[in-house]
Structure formats: C-alpha cells, structure tokens
Amino acid sequence: MTTYDRIGASYADTRRPDPRIAARIRRALGGAATVINVGAGSGSYEPSETVWAVEPSAVMIAQRPAGAARVLQASAESVPLADDSADAVMALLTVHHWGDLEAGIGELRRLARQRVVIFTFDPDINHRFWLLEEYLPQAAVFDGTRAVAVDRLVGLLGGARVETVPVPHDCTDGFLAAFWRRPEAYLDPQVRAAISLFAQIGDDVVRPGLARLEEDLSCGRWHDRHAGLLERDVLDVGYRLLVADP
User: Fold this and answer.
1) Which of 18, 48, 115, 227 has its CB 3.0 to 4.6 Å from that of 88, i.e. a possible disulfide?
2) What is the DSSP string of 131-157?
3) Mean pLDDT in the chain?
4) Can you give the residue ranges of every domain in the chain?
5) Which residue has the higher pLDDT, 232 or 7?
6) What is the pLDDT of residue 2?
C-alpha cells in the first residue's frame, strides 16, 4: 500500500491545481508536443499534451477525471514504456516519496526526448516555514529523512535550471505550505488529510503543536508575530521548478 492509498481519498477536492503554478509548469515544459506525467496522482497540472500518466496508487487513479490521459499503474522507478517515449517528462511534488531516487530520475531521463521538469521543494528553505519551525519541529526532523536536496536532484539530472516558484496567498493547491497566510486552515482535518507529512508523522506529534497554534490564533499571538506575512501576496517557502534538457 502506498502513502496515497491511505490519504488520497479526498485529494482531488483539497489539492486543486493553482492556475498560477500551472502556468509556470506549462512554460517549463516549453513546446513539448507529448508529455508523460510520472507520480501523476489524480492528474493535477497535466497539460493536454499528456500521453501517459504513471501512478502507483489505485486510490489516486480512481480520482482521475474523465478524459484524462491514459494511466499506467506503476512506480517511478520502473516505468513500462520505451526509451524516448515523449518530448517531455514531468514529476510534480513526488520525488520525496520515491524509494529509489536514482532509479526514478534515471527513468525520467530515459523516457524524455527533450526535457525533464520536476516540481519539488528545497528542504533548507521549506523547513524554516513557520508551521514547522515554530509548531511542528519534530515533523521537520522527520521530513528531513525523505526530503531531497535540490543540488542532489540537479546532479542526478546532469544539470538543470532551477526556478523559484513563490506561493500565492490564496493558493488553491493545498500542499504543505500553501496556507502560509491562512494559518487556521491547518486546524482543519480535511486540509491535513491531503498533506502527506501529516499522515506520516502521526497524531501524537501533530496534536500538541496544533493545540499551541490554535491558542496563538485565539489570543492574537500568531498575528502579532507574523504581521508582515499578512501584507504579502506571495511568499518563497522553498518550492522550485527544475528544468533539464538531458
């Protein structure tokens, strides 16, 4: 059973593609006429040029919309497609879940004729996000065991352009740091249910930190501490696009 077999049941509702991030991903894909989406989940951010989606979780596959690209139930580390199967291959917020990173990146490079696009996060920045640093430091420690350094990815890709992707304050895609200006969202079990980190660390770690967050929101302490965030429209919380032409 994959992580997303356990947590993915409401993923399509709470992890809706953000159009501004989608535009960045589309630009990164360039003029690719054919695309393979590896670690595709429910199909977020798949362009119309997608010819194959690769996803190991049956729960996620079941949420793919009608008319979505053909899907292969397979892992990133072993994709049953021929070399050079598409102009571009993309892997979005997925590499930190792979059991064998080197094998997975090797598959992306093998499948792509022209370009590989990875959307990921820089743990050195992401782990300084206020939720982790102030309320869930144990979660940040755990996340460090699965997070992948951007430099390591660049090396495995044989070189890549790294682009910063600031997160809008009203981001519609509910990944970990999407609610940086909406702290009350983290108190919502449905929001947390679609964030893999919460599912993997357990309630015993999460509950005390969220109780402190709820108290700080109630008394105004959070707003006093983070007043500057409330004046910002976007924030760099570590999300990065890696664009490689192998």
Assistant:
1) 115
2) IIIII-HHHHHHHTTT---HHHHHHHH
3) 93
4) 3-244
5) 232
6) 52
